[in-house]
Amino acid sequence: MSQAPPLRWQVGQVRISKVVELESTGGSRFLLPQATPDEVQKIDWMAPHFADERGRLKLSVHALIIDTGTRRILVDTCLGNDKQGRGIPHWNDRQGTFLADLAAAGYPAESIDTVLCTHLHVDHVGWNTRLVDGRWVPTFPQARYIFGRAEYEHWAAQEGRADMRAVFEDSVRPIFDAGLAELVAVDHQICPEVRLMPTHGHTPGHCSVRISSAGEEAIITGDLAHHPCQMAHPHWNSLADMDPAAAEATRRAFFAGLAGKPVLVIGTHFAGPSAGRVQRDGAGFRLLVCW
Question: Among the four residues 124, 162, 261, 279, which has the most C-beta atoms within 10 Å?
Answer without folding.
Answer: 124
